[in-house]
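User: Just a sanity check before I run the rest of the batch. Below are the structure tokens for the first item. I only need the designed sequence back.
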């Protein structure tokens, strides 16, 4: 696995699959998607970036995604605690959902 950083954008190349997002931070233990998402100013994010930020929180907690888009972005594997969020993670998700609604994304 090779990780390149350019202008705050991390690219992950693994067996021909590339993920690109400004939200990646550490990928050592499997899922460390949201390290920088906390510092993001949601009002400047696109609907796609908001979707990714919200779902990255769930992915970091082992959520079993059902949609093709989410499975392509985060993989098909799931694990305990199967998407159960901590209180602070739930607050972040709620904040992102609020911005998604304000921007007409959802």
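Assistant: Here's the designed sequence for the first item:
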């Amino acid at each position: 696995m090779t990780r390149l950083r350019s202008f705050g954008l991390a690219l992950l190349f693994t067996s021909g699959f590339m993920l690109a997002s400004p939200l990646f931070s550490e990928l050592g233990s499997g899922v460390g998607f949201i390290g920088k998402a906390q510092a993001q100013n949601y009002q400047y994010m696109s609907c796609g970036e908001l979707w990714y930020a919200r779902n990255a929180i769930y992915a970091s907690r082992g959520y079993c995604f059902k949609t093709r888009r989410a499975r392509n972005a985060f993989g098909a594997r799931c694990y305990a605690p199967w998407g159960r969020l901590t209180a602070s993670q739930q607050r972040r998700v709620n904040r992102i959902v609020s911005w998604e609604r304000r921007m007409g994304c959802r």
